[in-house]
Amino acid sequence: QVQLDESGGGLVQPGGSLTLSCAASGSIFSSIPMGWYRQAPGKQRELVAGISVSGNTNYADSVKGRFTISREARNTVSLQMSSLTPEDTAVYYCQGRYTGMEYWGKGTLVTVSS
To answer: What CA–CA distance (Å, rounded) separates 40 from 3?
Structure first.
């Protein structure tokens, strides 16, 4: 079983920056692909950024150039967010995939407001 724990959410002003972190734990024997998703009020969950075990990354067009996903440790990833806008307000979920199974964190709320 894999457990994902997110942290770093909070209130930030438009134009500000915030960094989220996600740590995967449990019976994991290798690096796993991980990513960040978000769900804004009244909207569907969407992929924000993903990172492979080899370090390849992909981003949603809406965040490309503003967000950066990186692997800080074997199965710990961060999402650096900058130039935040109110449209970035959402619950951000960390996702990991191991042995064909998807695992999700409980989510951390990011609110962009003045």
So the answer is: 23
Label the pairing between strands 108-112 and 10-12: parallel
Per-residue pLDDT reduced to its tens digit, 15-48: 999 999 999 999 888 899 999 999 998 999 999 9
The whole-angstrom separation of Cα 40 and Cα 60 is 14
Determine contact, residues 69/77, Cβ cutoff 8 Å: yes
Q: Measured between alpha carbons, how far is 95 from 110 in angstroms, rounded to an integer?
A: 17
- pLDDT band with cut points at 50, 70 and 90 for residue 108: very high
- CB atoms near residue 25 (< 10 Å): 12
Nearest to 107 by CA among 6, 4, 18, 36: 6
Phi, psi angle pair for 79, to nearest 5°: -125, 105
Beta partners for 47? 37
